[in-house]
């Protein structure tokens, strides 16, 4: 015990990140679960380590087998130099955290800005904020929606003697999910990964292939349908396997879909009914491909943990294992939604070279009606979602109005300062001529 007391937190986490025999793992799990429950009672936290998933409670063990511990992952995720933009403002003290955020445990706040809590939305992705800022739910959503930036792309290639913008139809929407929301979603995904490792998900939902070469072996979790990437042992071609069953879309992912529809990223006519989670370790990749037409266009990818580049082009080359070459690339920031449609989805191939750090993505897609699994039934939670409409003004008009109002206020301040300086100057001039 004296030896353990002498170790630093990082050393202890490393010690408990490695595999144990079944007996020791069960015993350790039981002891840590008991300890965590006691800590939860002491800190009034209702989130840490336990999460509701449908009609059952998902209990996360401290040790996730065959991978880093969840705590160590989160430390890396929010404190690494590669994610410096996700660090908490150092000016905010721990006392301020307790004062502002009530009894949330400090572990849940690392890497999150105070503003994330001030305008936290009550849409199911995170718990409601206790920060009393006087803003209505509509006002908070309006502020968050106004922060989202959309970017389109152009890259012209000569194909069949014609000049074509092969990136037509691609859109990047940034700032859709803030740091706190990203963290909560990632925690959910780790819980789902653990459930898959424990055999608590359906057989075809969770896949963790053996990593037999660089770039091969990323973890995938499929919901809504089972997609076959290549001709399998039974001779089934790539595409949706209609006779296979997977788990339905989890609640938190449905909240993500609802936000994307409400914020005019996903059209209400193409609401996704399936999704796939990709969990990349360092060195994992996705080779050049065009997504199967068993899925309707557009489809959408949300990025977490680390930024990465996605390559596009009508002719992408494989340089070596996990390394590819293409004429153009797009960076996918964390918390962003990338929309693939048009030429960008059907003419240009795309790929993700070996990632330099851990990454998670969720790709949402709608299945072709003729390719739906035989036992598929529409999710009532995803029916009838409507886009957000504040008024007749569109988003860009509102942004321009806000900028115009800000400029007017600044001009008024400048005029006021100028008037004061004129008064001082005239007073000085008058005093000079006094006898």
From TrEMBL:
Positions of region (Disordered): 66-99
Domain of life: Eukaryota
InterPro entries, per the entry: AlkB-like, AlkB-like_sf, ALKBH9B/ALKBH10B-like, Oxoglu/Fe-dep_dioxygenase_dom
Gene3D superfamilies according to UniProt: Alpha-ketoglutarate-dependent dioxygenase AlkB-like
Pfam families tied to this protein: 2OG-FeII_Oxy_2
Domain annotation Fe2OG dioxygenase: ranges: 271-368
Gene Ontology molecular function: any one: demethylase activity
GO biological process per UniProt: mRNA catabolic process
Listed Basic and acidic residues bias regions: 86-99
Annotated family: Belongs to the alkB family.
Name of protein: Fe2OG dioxygenase domain-containing protein
